[in-house]
Design goal:
Length: about 575
């Protein structure tokens, strides 16, 4: 959702105290902290409450911030001061004040809920979820907190849980437009446009031109073949002055998709560029500082050059008692990993996990600096065993049940964690998804990912091409250890001859053929795929992305030399 107000609720922003909120209770005589004037504090609180009751929230917040600077530690003061900081974009300041508010008044639902909302603005989603869980624990029938939980779970890619949270919010409060829009978003993401449309229309009836609702309707229009209507919706929305820079960027990205579908590649590319530059600027304070993910990868590759190949060929490690077999599915974003994972997840003997940070403990131990890879190469079993146990604990904490199954851990960026995988799991098999590098880089540039240090590299063509090159060079360096237990799965071959390629994958993994794999689209809809491929997968197998780069050849010209070596290496046609 966005930051716009919907009716009488504020959908995804800070806590706005209602005029009927808890009355200001002045400090009792003799109870004020040493050096404070109880009468002066009482007067300040009365002025703040009067402004709040008059719905003059800007004045109330200004008075509260001034009172806080004098040391007046009162819940109402803290809530309002946090609101002012949030509205001014000072989210860290708002968070600090709200943490203090919760300390002063642990039962204050407004402060707890606002803290969760600010944490979502800072994209600290696990912390935000914990805050909303705390609110729900205190007041289980608070629909707003369930809606906020849904939005947070959606941002974390936990779409089934998000859907349940939105539905629960609507059970408690059928007119909750935040939850209505949240469900519309989820339906749109999985390609259920006919079901999403009436929900978005209901939101727009209450709040005309609400960004998320307009974008859901535009997606429905485009899916139904009404590209020009979708284009008009998005162009009108992009001109709305109420949009934030982040919202306007996302609108431009969707406009690019609509223009691409109308076979207007030049115009589409301009829209993609506007989207990416908007996101690039918005996230620069977080991801544009210090060592980039690309620089880190290049430095790690330089370290690998000094490590003998045999360092990555380990003796078998103690196997986890759960899975029948252990598989890592990796490659690069937009290389076909999601399609292959969904196909395998449809097999009754497979348990698959979609893009969870299962190796986070190992990363913290051996991948915080590029030079750590040298320590990893020398690591003893005593050092590795706890990290292996932490991995399996994380797998199960994410909801996977690998016992007795072929467990597939899919994450395209695990390519950059191959040194960890080789040392920790010398018996694991690896599926490496491969696709024409030009299609990969173009697709990465055109899609909107949940932002991270890695996703930030994909916002420019040089960054995307450079990051792809780094991933392939890293895999190439480790090929002597990878080769015997790795199978390359070429995306174009999978699309062209599904049964043959999937049969080869099954043989490699020791799986019998299952006809259920042909029905992967049904499984994808049921699993609520969180990646940008979700809606496409719900429509089934498609070759529409094969060779898409040719339509954008002029725009890709600056990075074609970087990709050319891999195009030749992997046997793709030069033209």
């Amino acid at each position: 959702m966005s930051d716009w107000k919907v009716g009488s609720i504020k959908v995804k922003s800070g806590y706005t105290p209602a005029p009927t909120a808890r009355p200001a209770v002045a400090p009792a005589a003799g109870s004020a902290p040493s050096g404070r004037d109880p009468a002066a504090d009482r007067q300040r609180l009365m002025e703040i409450q009067a402004a709040t009751q008059a719905r003059d929230f800007p004045r109330a917040a200004t008075l509260a911030e001034a009172a806080l600077k004098t040391g007046l530690d009162h819940p109402m003061v803290l809530n309002l001061a946090a609101l002012k900081a949030e509205q001014e974009g000072r989210f860290e300041d708002a968070l600090a004040v709200l943490r203090r508010a919760v300390e002063v008044a642990p039962q204050d639902l407004g402060a707890r809920n606002a803290m969760g909302l600010v944490l979502t603005r800072l994209e600290r989603y696990p912390d935000a979820l914990a805050a909303f869980d705390g609110v729900v624990g205190l007041k289980p029938d608070f629909a707003g907190a369930h809606c906020a939980r849904g939005a947070t779970l959606e941002a974390m890619g936990r779409l089934k849980e998000a859907e349940a949270a939105y539905n629960h919010a609507l059970e408690l409060e059928p007119e909750n437009l935040g939850a209505t829009q949240g469900l519309a978003n989820l339906l749109s993401r999985r390609g259920a446009h006919a079901d999403a449309r009436p929900l978005a229309e209901a939101v727009l009836e209450a709040e005309p031109n609400f960004p998320d609702a307009v974008m859901v309707l535009a997606a429905a229009d485009a899916a139904e073949g009404h590209g020009e209507r979708a284009q008009r919706r998005l162009e009108l929305l992009a001109g709305d002055e109420r949009l934030t820079a982040h919202q306007r960027a996302l609108v431009q990205g969707q406009l690019g998709d609509v223009l691409d579908a109308q076979d207007l590649p030049a115009e589409a590319f301009q829209a993609y560029a506007a989207c990416n530059m908007g996101l690039w600027r918005a996230y620069a304070p977080v991801h544009g500082q210090g060592v980039s993910a690309l620089d880190f990868a290049r430095a790690m590759i330089a370290e690998l050059d000094n490590i003998p190949p045999e360092a990555w060929t380990s003796t078998p490690a103690p196997a986890d008692s759960g899975p029948k077999a252990h598989v890592f599915l990796l490659g690069f974003p937009r290389s076909g990993t999601t399609l292959l994972e969904q196909v395998l997840a449809s097999h009754p003997e497979v348990e698959a996990l979609e893009e969870r940070e299962t190796l986070i403990d190992a990363q913290r131990a051996f991948q915080m600096q590029p030079s750590d890879v040298a320590r990893l190469a020398r690591a003893s079993e005593a050092e590795l065993a706890p990290l292996r146990a932490a991995y399996w604990a994380k797998v199960r904490a994410e909801g996977a049940e690998p016992a007795g199954k072929v467990f597939v851990d899919k994450h395209p960026l695990h390519t950059f964690r191959l040194p960890l995988i080789l040392k920790l799991f010398p018996d694991a098999k690896i599926l490496f998804a491969r696709r024409d590098p030009r299609d990969v880089v173009l697709s990465c540039y055109r899609r909107r990912f949940a932002m991270s240090g890695s996703a930030y590299q994909l916002l420019t063509l040089p960054g995307a091409a450079g990051y792809y090159d780094a991933a392939m060079r890293l895999a190439d360096r480790l090929e002597p250890a990878l080769g015997p237990r790795t199978q390359i799965v070429r995306h174009e071959a999978l699309v062209e001859d599904f049964d043959k390629v999937v049969g080869e994958v099954c043989a490699f993994l020791g799986l019998p053929w299952s006809d259920a794999m042909r029905n992967f689209a049904d499984k994808a809809r049921d699993r609520a795929v969180a990646t940008p491929s979700g809606a496409q997968l719900s429509r089934g197998l498609s070759a529409e992305g094969v060779g898409a780069w040719r339509r954008y050849k002029d725009q890709l010209a600056p990075v074609l030399p970087t990709l050319g070596a891999w195009v030749a290496e992997y046997g793709y046609d030069a033209e």
